[in-house]
Design brief:
By secondary structure, the protein is of the alpha+beta class. The chain has five helices and 18 strands.
């Protein structure tokens, strides 16, 4: 059977950061606008490429402080098609993508997200492994009840914004089973009308914490950069840790620096593969766009 030719201009790039995987879709390389249903279809792990979300960018950006060449715009989408304000792992991946494309070097540059501007820097790479530092912004403590109860268990609750919402819970020792069972209940709790990311926190010592994560719009995930910042900030607020914290997650560790008001996160990212979409997938995206009645990105 002859293989049908694949149209030019339909590329994407798969990366992961501590097991949290994203598809980078560069508008310069992908000619179709993505609707919410198309995003969900591409992220489907059985019928699509499979991903914890899509990083759509870089997008056109107006001159910011005369530094247009060092400022980029990014939209971040969850696998259910909803838009996220910010993602630490996603930002490290996007920074590495820009670096591998030659659009940035090892000097600092900025990325505008829905959750605000951040500063990124790709550190010197060792072999195929690169670490990226991201100044994630200030941790803002949010008002709300200091405790939440689920299944008869009371959890201490610290609500934190990192440009996106988080609810850090302290209670039984964190486990994947606990995150998968209680996480959806917290995400959809009436206290959070726009839903929330959820972290189950255990403080190991003054410099180490452990978390399990349930992400809004994505579900259980192996690692999260913004969750790491929120959990570290919550632990510091309670006086349980110092300014330098290693966050341990199933996918690996991140270093969180809270010596300044702006929290800095440092950790790895890696490219998995570069994709050239087949005619079937291109047709699928077009069909999903039509299903959304011509709507563009949410």
């Amino acid at each position: 059977m002859a293989i049908r030719s694949i149209p030019e201009g339909f590329h994407a790039h798969k990366y992961h950061a501590l097991g949290n995987d994203y598809l980078v879709v560069d508008p310069a390389e992908f000619k179709l606008i993505l609707s919410a249903n198309a995003i969900a279809a591409l992220c489907d792990r059985n019928r699509g490429i499979g991903a914890d979300g899509i990083l759509y960018g870089p997008l056109p950006m107006e001159d910011v402080d005369g530094a247009v060449s060092k400022t980029f715009s990014l939209r971040i989408f969850n696998p259910d098609g909803s838009e996220a304000e910010k993602s630490g792992n996603g930002l490290r991946i996007f920074a590495l993508y820009l670096y591998e494309c030659g659009r940035v070097d090892e000097s600092p540059f900025r990325v505008m997200t829905k959750g605000g501007m951040v500063e990124c820097r790709v550190l010197p790479c060792v072999g195929w492994m690169c670490s990226i530092s991201v100044a994630m912004g200030k941790a803002q403590l949010l008002p709300g009840s200091p405790s939440l109860s689920f299944e008869g268990v009371e959890y201490r609750a610290i609500r934190v914004s990192m440009g996106n919402p988080h609810c850090v819970l302290m209670g039984p020792p964190p486990s994947p089973e606990l995150a998968k069972r209680i996480g959806p209940l917290v995400e959809q709790h009436p206290d959070f009308p726009n839903r929330t990311n959820v972290q189950f926190l255990e403080v190991l010592d003054r410099n180490n914490i452990r978390i399990e994560i349930w992400e809004r719009g994505a579900g259980y995930t192996l690692a999260s950069g913004s969750s790491s910042c929120a959990a570290a900030a919550a632990a510091k607020h309670l006086g349980l840790v110092g300014d330098l914290v290693t966050v341990h997650m199933p996918g690996g560790t991140l270093e969180i620096d809270m010596r300044e008001e702006i929290i800095t996160m440092t950790g790895p990212a890696v490219r998995i593969f570069d994709a050239l979409f087949s005619p079937h997938t291109i047709s699928l995206v077009r069909a999903m766009n039509e299903k959304d009645q011509g709507k563009e990105m949410p």
